[in-house]
Design brief:
Strand content of chain B: 25-35%
CATH class of the largest domain in chain B: Mainly Beta
CATH topology of the largest domain in chain B: Jelly Rolls
Largest sheet of chain A: 2 strands, parallel
Distance between the termini of chain A: 29 Å
Distance between the termini of chain B: 92 Å
Largest sheet of chain B: 13 strands, mixed
Oligomer: heterodimer
Number of strands of chain A: 2
Radius of gyration of chain A: 19 Å
Number of helices of chain B: 10
Structural class of chain B: alpha+beta
Radius of gyration of chain B: 28 Å
Mean pLDDT of chain A: 78
Shape of chain B: elongated
Shape of chain A: elongated
Chain lengths: ~180, ~325
């Protein structure tokens, strides 16, 4: 795999750094599960790289396992600090904005804003409304209202595992509907 | 709820779409263990279709994240609730599931194809290139760059020269420019990158740009409108406030200088014209110049230069030789 983001690979890289470059694409996909977009996942992967690049080279038994452990910790920190920021603002989605028209989006969106059009929002809403009731409720509470799976489980009076299964099925359903 | 039971039961019988949904849902938890993470990693690598299915689910997931508020508002409208339809839809999803999965894969294929292209200009040439993602790149004379656009990122390598980038907003695919180990990472914006024999300069006209002076450095500069970062071959970085329109003026056939030595001006001019200018006097080469040079033809340019400096020109083998008056 080519080193991404333009960083040159140092000549005497440690096994951990080498494993990072081999696993980089997968790590980004792992991180992206809980970031708001791919760019943020790329940033976290970059943070991870900086962490391991700063470590003195040494023997690591399972570089992949260590990389994922570190990525997992970074991700949890990231999610917590984002939640703290959201709570401070008194709302969950402080960084979301809706534009009336696509042209507006193309003009000059504030750098970090992720924007979706009203028309697309309607399509997404219809897809959610068409989900089976329990599945739809789990998806709304978890994804749209920003509750954790545990909080969603408590609100619905079901197990956390059941919420995860609802989300999983909802994702399959919505992806098929919205990506065709 | 039979479909749920099937997913819970491991998912081997389910297609990649169901497995992707199961993984994405599982990864939302705080208690994902090392073994599970490695299982996810192995699943991604196990089949080409896994990665695509996961990327498709991710893009929907992110879209719902970005539009959570708007979607919530739409759902609150009475018109959005159509419970009467859901039974039919569920039935159709069951029957048509396979066909739909096949369509998803097909529709994704073009987007997954990575396109790579190289663009170059010679002396005196300017060129505008429209990239497949909607971004525009203006190449100054004697510039060489390659562009790689994939599902996950947009990468430009500027091996030599200067270019102005107007980057199309797409948070899913970061836009990066690499110039001699220096990295420019874009957050949505217009900027100029110049790489002449390893001296890299980045000037921002709009938006935000992150520049990393070297591959190893964990130092990053976040530049905004009107800022210019110069990074020399040694990696030393210098930040300055500039008028971006001056830096971007070459696109309109003008060069703007503020206290820059004549040698630099001549080097720029020699990229713009086939006819080459030489400086006959080393002391003259160091003379600072401030002013606007309109790029029409070498003779006129030198004429205008002679109004700013005590110089005269004589024809030489390659073009013109500048001498002290």
């Amino acid at each position: 795999m080519a080193p991404a983001r333009g960083f040159e690979r140092p000549g005497d890289e440690s096994p951990l750094v080498r494993a990072f470059f081999e696993k980089r694409e997968n790590l980004v996909l792992f991180l992206a599960a809980r970031t708001r977009d791919m760019a943020t996942a790329e940033d976290l992967a970059q943070d991870l790289y900086l962490k391991i690049a700063a470590q003195p080279p040494g023997d690591v038994k399972s570089p992949s396992a260590l990389l994922y452990r570190m990525a997992g910790n970074l991700l949890i920190d990231h999610v917590r600090s984002r939640q703290r920021a959201s709570r401070r603002e008194g709302q969950w989605r402080m960084d979301t904005r809706v534009a009336g028209a696509e042209e507006e989006v193309a003009q000059e969106p504030a750098a970090d804003d992720v924007v979706i059009g009203r028309e697309r929002a309607r399509m997404l809403a219809e897809a959610v409304a068409a989900l089976p009731p329990k599945m739809g409720q789990a998806f709304r509470l978890h994804k749209l209202e920003g509750r954790s799976q545990a909080e969603t489980a408590q609100a619905m009076g079901v197990s956390v595992k059941m919420v995860e299964q609802h989300i999983s099925a909802a994702l399959k359903n919505l992806t098929q509907k919205l990506r065709t | 709820m039979t479909s749920l039971a099937a997913i819970a039961g491991g998912g081997d019988r389910d297609g990649p779409a169901a497995q992707a949904g199961a993984w994405l849902a599982r990864l939302q938890a705080d208690d994902v263990g090392e073994a599970e993470m490695l299982a996810f990693d192995a699943w991604l690598d196990a089949a080409a279709g896994h990665r695509e299915a996961y990327a498709a689910a991710l893009s929907v997931w992110h879209e719902f994240g970005a539009g959570a508020e708007a979607v919530g508002e739409e759902l609150a409208r009475p018109a959005a609730r159509k419970p009467a339809q859901s039974l039919t839809r569920r039935w159709m999803a069951g029957v048509g599931g396979l066909a739909v999965a096949a369509t998803v894969t097909l529709a994704l294929l073009p987007a997954l194809t990575t396109t790579t292209a190289t663009y170059a200009t010679g002396k005196g040439q300017h060129r505008q290139v429209k990239l497949t993602d909607g971004s525009t790149v203006d190449l100054n004379a004697e510039t060489r760059l390659s562009v790689k656009i994939s599902l996950f990122r947009r990468q430009v390598a500027l091996s030599d020269g200067e270019a102005i980038f107007d980057v199309a907003h797409d948070t899913r695919r970061p836009f990066t420019v690499q110039a001699d180990g220096r990295m420019v990472r874009v957050v949505g914006t217009q900027f100029d990158v110049r790489n002449r024999s390893g001296d890299v300069t980045v000037t921002v006209a709009r938006g935000k740009v992150e520049v990393r002076p070297s591959a190893a450095s964990d130092q990053a500069f976040m530049l905004t409108r009107g800022q210019r970062l110069q990074v020399g071959r040694t990696g030393r970085a210098q930040l300055a406030a500039v008028d971006p329109s001056e830096t971007f003026s070459w696109r309109a056939g003008r060069l703007v200088y503020r206290n820059q030595p004549l040698s630099e001006v001549v080097a720029d001019l020699n990229r713009q014209f086939v006819q080459q200018i030489e400086i006959g006097d080393p002391a003259l080469a160091q003379t600072p110049i401030t002013g606007v040079i309109v790029l029409d033809d070498p003779a006129t340019v030198v004429e205008r230069l002679s109004l700013m400096l005590p110089i005269r020109s004589v024809p030489s083998e390659r073009g013109l030789l500048l001498l002290r008056k």
